[in-house]
Amino acid sequence: MKTVLLVVLALVLVVAAVFATRSYLSRGDAPPGLEDGRLRACPASPNCVASESASGEAVVAALAYRGDRAATEGALVAALATLPRTAIQRRQGDYWHVTSTSALFRFIDDVEFRFDDGAGLVQLRSASRVGYSDFGANRKRVEAIRAAYLAAGD
Predict the structure, then answer these.
(1) What are the structural domains, with CATH classification, of the chain?
(2) Average of pLDDT values for 96-106?
Protein backbone atom coordinates (compact mmCIF):
# COMPACT_ATOMS: atom_id res chain seq x y z
CA MET A 1 0.00 0.00 0.00
CA LYS A 2 2.79 2.39 0.91
CA THR A 3 4.61 1.63 -2.36
CA VAL A 4 1.47 2.31 -4.42
CA LEU A 5 0.97 5.62 -2.66
CA LEU A 6 4.57 6.63 -3.35
CA VAL A 7 4.24 5.68 -7.02
CA VAL A 8 1.03 7.70 -7.36
CA LEU A 9 2.64 10.67 -5.62
CA ALA A 10 5.68 10.44 -7.90
CA LEU A 11 3.45 10.37 -10.99
CA VAL A 12 1.51 13.40 -9.79
CA LEU A 13 4.75 15.28 -9.21
CA VAL A 14 6.08 14.37 -12.65
CA VAL A 15 2.86 15.50 -14.35
CA ALA A 16 2.88 18.77 -12.37
CA ALA A 17 6.53 19.35 -13.31
CA VAL A 18 5.76 18.79 -17.01
CA PHE A 19 2.87 21.28 -16.94
CA ALA A 20 4.90 23.81 -14.97
CA THR A 21 7.75 23.54 -17.49
CA ARG A 22 5.38 24.01 -20.42
CA SER A 23 3.81 27.01 -18.71
CA TYR A 24 7.24 28.54 -18.21
CA LEU A 25 8.18 27.86 -21.84
CA SER A 26 4.99 29.53 -23.09
CA ARG A 27 6.20 32.81 -21.60
CA GLY A 28 9.37 32.98 -23.69
CA ASP A 29 8.07 32.78 -27.25
CA ALA A 30 8.38 35.81 -29.46
CA PRO A 31 5.08 37.60 -30.00
CA PRO A 32 3.28 36.78 -33.22
CA GLY A 33 2.73 39.22 -36.02
CA LEU A 34 1.69 39.63 -39.62
CA GLU A 35 3.30 37.81 -42.53
CA ASP A 36 2.92 39.58 -45.86
CA GLY A 37 0.14 41.71 -44.35
CA ARG A 38 -1.94 38.73 -43.16
CA LEU A 39 -2.24 36.73 -39.97
CA ARG A 40 0.04 33.71 -39.91
CA ALA A 41 -1.31 30.32 -40.93
CA CYS A 42 -2.11 27.83 -38.21
CA PRO A 43 0.35 24.96 -37.73
CA ALA A 44 -0.67 21.36 -38.40
CA SER A 45 -1.30 20.78 -34.68
CA PRO A 46 -4.90 21.17 -33.43
CA ASN A 47 -4.20 24.12 -31.11
CA CYS A 48 -4.99 27.07 -33.36
CA VAL A 49 -7.97 28.61 -35.13
CA ALA A 50 -7.96 31.45 -37.65
CA SER A 51 -10.23 33.25 -40.09
CA GLU A 52 -7.58 33.68 -42.79
CA SER A 53 -4.78 31.40 -43.92
CA ALA A 54 -6.49 28.44 -42.24
CA SER A 55 -8.04 25.25 -43.52
CA GLY A 56 -10.04 22.31 -42.22
CA GLU A 57 -10.83 22.26 -38.52
CA ALA A 58 -8.79 25.44 -37.90
CA VAL A 59 -11.19 27.74 -39.77
CA VAL A 60 -13.37 30.25 -37.92
CA ALA A 61 -15.38 33.13 -39.36
CA ALA A 62 -14.07 36.68 -39.29
CA LEU A 63 -15.96 39.35 -37.35
CA ALA A 64 -18.03 41.80 -39.40
CA TYR A 65 -17.44 45.48 -38.63
CA ARG A 66 -19.94 47.09 -36.25
CA GLY A 67 -20.44 50.26 -38.27
CA ASP A 68 -17.18 52.16 -38.77
CA ARG A 69 -13.68 51.24 -37.62
CA ALA A 70 -13.94 53.25 -34.38
CA ALA A 71 -17.20 51.52 -33.38
CA THR A 72 -15.69 48.16 -34.26
CA GLU A 73 -12.59 48.79 -32.15
CA GLY A 74 -14.75 49.94 -29.24
CA ALA A 75 -16.90 46.81 -29.44
CA LEU A 76 -13.81 44.61 -29.58
CA VAL A 77 -12.22 46.32 -26.56
CA ALA A 78 -15.48 45.84 -24.65
CA ALA A 79 -15.61 42.17 -25.69
CA LEU A 80 -12.02 41.51 -24.62
CA ALA A 81 -12.69 43.14 -21.25
CA THR A 82 -15.24 40.40 -20.50
CA LEU A 83 -12.65 37.62 -20.76
CA PRO A 84 -10.68 36.76 -17.61
CA ARG A 85 -6.87 36.84 -17.71
CA THR A 86 -6.91 38.52 -21.14
CA ALA A 87 -4.88 41.63 -21.92
CA ILE A 88 -4.23 43.74 -25.00
CA GLN A 89 -0.46 43.77 -25.49
CA ARG A 90 -0.14 45.81 -28.67
CA ARG A 91 -2.38 47.95 -30.87
CA GLN A 92 -0.42 48.93 -33.93
CA GLY A 93 -2.30 50.18 -36.97
CA ASP A 94 -4.43 47.39 -38.40
CA TYR A 95 -2.90 44.76 -36.06
CA TRP A 96 -3.68 43.92 -32.43
CA HIS A 97 -1.93 41.34 -30.25
CA VAL A 98 -3.72 40.03 -27.15
CA THR A 99 -2.65 37.39 -24.64
CA SER A 100 -4.87 35.04 -22.70
CA THR A 101 -3.52 33.11 -19.72
CA SER A 102 -5.05 29.84 -18.55
CA ALA A 103 -6.28 29.70 -14.96
CA LEU A 104 -4.60 26.58 -13.62
CA PHE A 105 -1.25 26.14 -15.31
CA ARG A 106 -0.83 29.75 -16.55
CA PHE A 107 -0.27 28.80 -20.21
CA ILE A 108 -0.13 31.87 -22.44
CA ASP A 109 -2.05 31.82 -25.71
CA ASP A 110 -1.85 34.50 -28.40
CA VAL A 111 -4.94 36.10 -29.90
CA GLU A 112 -4.43 38.33 -32.92
CA PHE A 113 -6.68 40.65 -34.88
CA ARG A 114 -6.20 42.30 -38.27
CA PHE A 115 -8.61 45.05 -39.28
CA ASP A 116 -9.52 44.86 -42.97
CA ASP A 117 -11.22 48.20 -43.63
CA GLY A 118 -11.81 47.41 -47.31
CA ALA A 119 -13.75 44.23 -46.58
CA GLY A 120 -15.28 45.50 -43.32
CA LEU A 121 -13.95 42.47 -41.45
CA VAL A 122 -11.81 41.78 -38.41
CA GLN A 123 -9.65 38.77 -39.21
CA LEU A 124 -8.65 36.81 -36.12
CA ARG A 125 -6.33 34.05 -34.96
CA SER A 126 -6.05 32.32 -31.57
CA ALA A 127 -3.20 29.89 -30.94
CA SER A 128 -1.43 28.09 -28.12
CA ARG A 129 2.28 28.77 -27.76
CA VAL A 130 3.14 25.27 -26.52
CA GLY A 131 1.72 21.79 -26.71
CA TYR A 132 -0.03 19.84 -29.39
CA SER A 133 -3.72 19.90 -28.52
CA ASP A 134 -5.59 22.62 -26.68
CA PHE A 135 -8.77 20.55 -26.16
CA GLY A 136 -10.72 23.21 -28.04
CA ALA A 137 -9.67 26.14 -25.82
CA ASN A 138 -8.81 28.49 -28.71
CA ARG A 139 -12.08 27.81 -30.56
CA LYS A 140 -14.05 28.37 -27.33
CA ARG A 141 -12.14 31.62 -26.74
CA VAL A 142 -12.91 32.89 -30.24
CA GLU A 143 -16.59 32.03 -29.82
CA ALA A 144 -16.65 33.84 -26.44
CA ILE A 145 -15.05 36.88 -28.09
CA ARG A 146 -17.60 36.69 -30.93
CA ALA A 147 -20.55 36.49 -28.52
CA ALA A 148 -19.28 39.39 -26.39
CA TYR A 149 -18.44 41.43 -29.51
CA LEU A 150 -21.95 40.95 -30.92
CA ALA A 151 -23.47 41.85 -27.53
CA ALA A 152 -21.28 44.95 -27.05
CA GLY A 153 -23.33 48.11 -27.19
CA ASP A 154 -26.67 46.28 -27.17
Answers:
(1) 2-151 (3.30.310)
(2) 91
* Range with the poorest average pLDDT among 19-23, 51-55, 85-89: 19-23
Identify whether the C-beta of residue 42 lies closer than 8 Å to the C-beta of residue 49. Answer: yes
Distance CA 121, CA 61 (A): 10
pTM of this structure: 0.80
67: left (phi over 0), alpha (psi -120 to 50) or beta: left
Q: Per residue, what are the HEC states of 70-122?
A: HHHHHHHHHHHHCCCCEEEEEEECCEEEEEEECCCCCCEEEEEEEEECCCCEE
Q: Which residues contact 103 (CB under 8 A, 6 or more apart)?
A: 84, 85
Give the type of residue at 25.
L
DSSP bridge pairs for 111 = 98, 126
